[in-house]
Write a structure and sequence with these properties.
The complex is a heterodimer of chains A (571) and B (329).
Chain A (H helix, E strand, L loop, with lengths): L9 E11 L4 E12 L4 E5 L6 H8 L6 E8 L2 E2 L5 H7 L4 E4 L13 H11 L4 H14 L16 H13 L5 E5 L7 H14 L4 E6 L2 H7 L2 E6 L2 E7 H6 L4 H8 L39 H5 L5 E4 L2 E3 L8 E13 L8 E8 L2 E3 L3 E6 L5 H8 L7 E6 L8 E4 L3 H4 L6 H12 L4 H14 L6 H4 L8 H13 L5 E5 L7 H18 L2 E6 L2 H7 L2 E6 L2 E7 H6 L4 H17 L1
Chain B lengths: L1 H26 L6 H4 L13 H10 L6 H14 L12 H36 L4 H15 L2 H15 L18 H23 L1 H15 L2 H8 L4 H38 L5 H11 L2 H29 L1 H7 L1
Helix pairs in contact in B: 1-13, 5-6, 5-8, 5-9, 5-11, 5-13, 6-9, 7-8, 9-11, 10-11, 11-12, 11-13, 12-13, 13-14
Chain lengths: 571, 329
């Protein structure tokens, strides 16, 4: 180990891994730089094909690709290692727990036989090596009668234990674990996590996985990889509180077991009809909802935009689409210039980030609708500021009204009603507009036939009217959507359909959804963050799970108790 | 249970084979006394075969009885361990076979061993250096060798190495009527006679293990456990043998054992070309002379060797490939 504690134990800089196939190059890892301190546990996460395994292999010099850059270990660049130099590193200094697969072990020799090979290689006597191997297998809780089995006779869990024991035979300083828990049932999984915790106490470690839950339990530092690029690097406790890169946030959100109550969401699909080429740009640009032109042109570097973490994003992470500072609003009694003032909002600071659902909860008359309408620009605040992101046009903020029937002109036909925003924008000719309108009708689950399109809005059921309103709000592809109790009028099955639709559309367009409701269940199910408003003031804010599980303000606590104690009665 | 079932299967196969073996020689035109009638240098006597003599002989050997009765006698005797008496040699068939068998086994054994060891080693070498010049040359010559019919090869060897250059004797398994001063001299004499036929056999056979080893080894080299072993810091030699070759051997050895059974049939050409006194030569002579009991016995022996080679292959795979054992359970 290095004498100087401040010196990194392992330093990777500008690592590029390029696979050559017949006629094209595949860059599996691009400009990867990171440092690992002695004793630190780094978790590298990303979906399959993000270059995780290539990185691990390159640390041991077994990656069959062209490598450039530097991997400095003990002051020496591993990439320049000669064969005999690797011999000192492999397994003696760095060992690698291979991804769980039967193909990793030689099918023709017993487990024990393969365990002792690296020890014999480094000069152990056979008898001593066997003893040591048995000890380790025992420690890793492989039943003793299985020690002499062949790999094919072991279950996935047992094989994983063997693999872990195998990494430890030469007592390395650093261990790389590649998907140590994938494909293993929950009981075995927990045992393996416990085992890893025990093992990692005095080792430096890289854990490569797509399992964020595992990293939450074990890692000190999290790196998120996307298509071979490190997009976010943050201390683990901060990462699990909030993710700043659009991809890491989406990845986090799509993970089922991290947030137990919230609806899971997927990561938006690749856009196919891109006019820009993404070869030189940000790797995530074609799936990113907040990409600007620069994102398609230059590859962002990993920079410390925040004091606590580094991200690679030209937009400095997920942007706030709307941010209000000290908003205040005073109403006077209607029709009167001198009547008593009612302070509806006071010093309200809220923000809505791209692709985020923010819930605003509060009792009736707490000022929820007023706040929504100010955000939407329907009314002006008395005091305070509203900042809108540079990429968001005023028209890109849309509103879904509380009462769908009231917000639709009864004299309009369905087609006219949904086309109305396009008519106002007046960018397209009539045919295109009708086409878009029909498409949107289909999107929100309404009929597109002439009979339905020619119906008057007054003839719609409330569910249909609600959908129509949502469609009308979405037809101009807004960036921010303020939804004021959008489902309160619907019966439960309709509610689910409409909400699913909203969330789907949100995923695809990266809409910031400002969701006004008094229904805490709903807020818990769909929102990432929550604002609690009471008498015009925001009394509590934070991540939904935190706020609802540990409410701090007495009023919130009261509200939560009221709402969720009912739940206890029901079940 | 597994083995009882297997043995049952082989029993049925054996019965079918015995029946076919019985029929095949008798389907040839002519009979065992035909040669007595022939008017060429192949006939051994000037005795004119009368109709009467022929009938007496047919009766003597039981060949005048219906085929079914003959078959019944054959099977009955076979189960008693009696294989009959050679018509041509007037000698117990078992004794006749025991005379030739050691020579065949020696020839086959050496040829098979040479082909297997060389084929596998060269195949493994080729696979490890795939794409290199050595690999390409080896590959080309092996494919070329496998295309040359074995008897042409035999004749070629005979003409050049034995007749022209006189490096080796022209035929036989040993120098007749030779008094050996010691065991070493005897051994050397036998080895000298063995060399050409064994090499011919090996050369004719080597391409199969070579190509199969090369192919399987190339696919094994791409397996994860190869790079995983390298990551563990193991020596290349260890990886090459314990990891790559050991696993590539599974299909190769299966194929080799299957081949072992066929080899005795393949020896006919070589033994006759080199006048090597083995089963192959005996078979050839017996066919010519319609020596039914000998033919039946040799055919049976060949079939048995194919079956036992298969059993051996099964057994060996059981040992080599841990997965077979797993699935058998």
């Amino acid at each position: 180990m290095p004498n100087n504690a401040s010196q990194p134990y392992l330093k990777i800089s500008k690592l590029n891994i390029t696979y050559k196939s017949e006629n094209h190059l595949v860059r599996a890892v691009k400009d990867l730089s990171l440092e690992l301190k002695s004793g630190e546990i780094l978790g590298l996460a990303g979906e399959s094909g993000s270059g995780k395994t290539s990185i691990c292999k390159s640390l041991l010099g077994v990656c069959p690709a062209h490598l450039s850059g530097k991997i400095v270990y003990n002051g020496k660049n591993l990439l320049e290692n000669k064969k005999h130099e690797w011999k000192k590193i492999r397994w003696n200094k760095i060992s690698y727990c291979f991804p769980n697969s039967r193909e990793i072990l030689n099918p023709s020799y017993s487990v024990l036989e393969q365990m002792i090979e690296p020890m014999l290689e480094s000069g152990f006597r056979r008898k001593r090596a066997i003893e040591h191997a048995r000890d380790l297998l025992f420690k890793c809780k492989l039943p003793i009668e299985k020690h002499d089995s062949y790999p094919v006779h072991l279950s996935g869990g047992e094989l994983q234990r063997v693999m872990i024991a195998l990494t430890l035979v030469n007592d390395p300083e650093m261990v790389i674990f590649d998907e140590p828990t994938s494909g293993i049932d929950i009981r075995n999984r927990n045992e393996i996590v416990e085992l890893l915790k025990e093992i990692l106490k005095n080792k430096t470690c890289i854990i490569v996985t797509h399992d964020l839950l595992l990293l939450r339990k074990l890692a000190d530092k999290i790196g998120i990889l996307y298509k071979g690029v490190l997009v976010e690097l943050a201390p683990a406790h901060l990462f699990f509180r909030n993710q700043h890169h659009p991809y890491s946030r989406a990845l986090y959100n799509s993970f089922t077991s991290l947030e137990t109550s919230r609806e899971m969401s997927r990561i938006r699909d690749r856009r196919n009809n891109l006019s820009h080429s993404t070869v030189n740009g940000c790797v995530f640009a074609d799936r990113c909802t907040q990409a600007i032109e620069k994102c398609f042109k230059d590859m962002p570097r990993l920079l410390s935009y925040y004091s606590d973490r580094q991200i690679a994003c030209h937009r400095k992470g997920v942007v706030s689409l709307i941010r209000t500072t000290n908003l205040s609003k005073i109403y006077r009694k209607s029709g009167s210039l001198w009547g008593p003032k009612i302070q509806v909002l006071k010093d309200v600071n809220v923000n809505v980030e791209a692709g985020e659902v923010v819930a605003l909860v509060g009792e009736s008359g707490a000022g929820k609708t007023t706040l929504g309408q100010i955000i939407c620009g329907l009314i002006d605040p008395e005091d305070g500021e509203m900042n809108i992101d540079e990429t968001v046009h005023r028209n890109d903020v849309q509103y879904i009204f509380q009462d769908p029937e009231e917000s639709l002109s009864p004299r309009y036909t369905v087609l006219e009603a949904i086309r109305e925003p396009l008519d106002i924008k007046n960018k397209f000719d009539l045919n295109t507009k009708n086409e878009m309108a029909r498409k949107m009708l289909a999107n929100v689950g309404l009929y597109t036939n002439a009979a339905f399109c020619d119906r008057f809005c007054s003839q719609l059921s409330s569910g249909e009217a609600q959908r129509l309103c949502i469609g009308r709000a979405l037809i101009t592809s807004p960036r921010v959507l303020v939804a004021d109790e959008p489902v309160s009028r619907l019966d439960p099955s309709e509610q689910v359909r409409v909400l699913k639709l909203l969330l789907e559309l949100q995923t695809d367009f990266g809409i910031g959804l400002f969701f006004i409701t008094h229904n805490l269940y709903l807020a818990r199910k769909i929102s990432r963050r929550i604002y609690v408003i009471h008498q015009g003031r925001i009394i509590e804010e934070g991540f939904t799970e935190t706020v609802l599980d540990q409410p701090r303000h007495p009023l919130t606590r009261n509200m939560v108790n009221l709402a969720f104690s009912k739940k206890a009665e029901v079940y | 249970m597994y083995w009882i079932k297997k043995l049952g299967e082989y029993g049925v196969v054996l019965l079918i084979i015995i029946s076919i073996n019985f029929l095949i020689p008798r389907l040839m035109p002519g009979d065992p006394f035909y040669f007595l009638d022939m008017d060429d240098e192949m006939s051994y006597s000037d005795v004119l075969l009368t109709e009467e003599t022929r009938e007496r002989l047919m009766h003597y050997y039981g060949l005048d009885k219906p085929l079914v009765v003959q078959y019944w006698h054959y099977v009955k005797n076979l189960f008693r361990g009696e294989m009959g008496i050679s018509i041509r040699h007037n000698m117990k068939v078992s004794k006749l076979i025991l005379q030739s068998l050691p020579w065949t086994l020696l020839l086959m054994g050496v040829g098979f061993f040479l082909a297997t060891v060389l084929g596998i080693s060269l195949g493994a070498f080729s696979a490890w250096k795939r794409g290199s010049k050595a690999d390409r040359i080896l590959m080309f010559s092996m494919v070329a060798l496998s295309r040359i019919p074995i008897f042409i090869m035999a004749v070629f060897m005979l003409i050049f190495l034995a007749a022209k250059l006189r490096f080796f004797p022209l035929g036989g398994a040993f120098t007749p009527y030779m008094e050996y001063p010691g065991t070493l001299q005897k051994f050397l004499d036998i080895a000298k006679h063995l060399f050409l036929p064994a090499v011919t056999l090996a050369v004719g056979d080597i391409a199969y293990p070579y190509l199969l080893t090369r192919n399987t080894m190339i696919s094994v080299i791409k397996k994860d456990y190869i790079w995983a072993a390298r990551a563990r810091g193991l020596r290349e030699k260890l990886i090459r043998f314990r990891y790559a070759l050991r696993n590539a051997l599974i299909p190769v050895m299966t194929a080799r054992f299957m081949r072992l059974g066929q080899l005795i049939g393949g020896s006919v050409f070589v033994e006759n070309t080199f006048a090597y006194p083995g089963l192959g030569k005996l078979l050839f002579d017996s066919v010519r002379l319609h020596d039914y009991p000998v033919l039946n016995a040799i055919l049976l022996f060949m079939s048995l060797s194919v079956i036992s080679a298969n059993i051996l292959a099964d057994r060996f795979i059981y040992y080599l490939d841990k997965r077979v054992e797993h699935h058998a359970k």
